[in-house]
Design a protein that fits this description.
The chain is an alpha+beta fold. It folds into two domains: 56 residues, no CATH class; 87 residues, no CATH class. 37% of the residues lie in helices and 10% in strands. Strands 1-2 form a two-stranded parallel ribbon. The N terminus is likely disordered.
Length: 147
């Protein structure tokens, strides 16, 4: 849920080579800020403030009624945030199911991958799907798309 804004899917909507080699970076942002305002916001809000709060779950755990699966990596610069999310979710979520069935997976990967590459955990998907379906049975209808 939280990762929606950070998935690489949005990178497909502009010429990455041009963007990544454009300097200065704030000028490069002008090329994507109209269709992808999130990136501009990241550049303009270096510290946690009201803008970041709109994306955050920090004060919204009590609204969470379904379990979640958090995936982070040993080399993920945001792994600490995933630990905080997992702790908050398992202690403060609205329902017992959401608190007890939420899981955290930590693996040997980083936060981002190269465009066109495959997330390492996608290969683990078949191993994860059965236990996840069992954990969420009767809680939500499963719709999974991996890859």
């Amino acid at each position: 849920m939280l990762g929606r804004s950070m998935q690489y899917e949005s990178l497909k909507h502009f010429d990455q080579d041009t963007f990544f080699f454009e300097l200065p970076i704030d000028t490069a942002m002008e090329k994507v800020s109209n269709t992808h305002p999130y990136y501009k916001g990241v550049m303009e809000h270096e510290q946690y403030d009201e803008w970041w709060s709109s994306y955050s779950l920090r004060d919204k755990y009590s609204e969470m009624a379904i379990p979640s699966l958090f995936i982070t990596g040993w080399f993920d610069s945001l792994s600490n945030e995933n630990f905080k999310l997992f702790n908050g979710w398992t202690k403060k979520a609205k329902t017992q199911d959401a608190r007890s069935k939420t899981k955290l997976i930590i693996g040997p990967w980083s936060h981002q991958i190269a465009p066109g590459a495959e997330y390492p955990w996608v290969k683990m998907a078949n191993t994860l799907i059965a236990p996840l379906e069992k954990a969420l049975s009767g809680v939500i209808e499963m719709h999974m798309h991996l890859g």
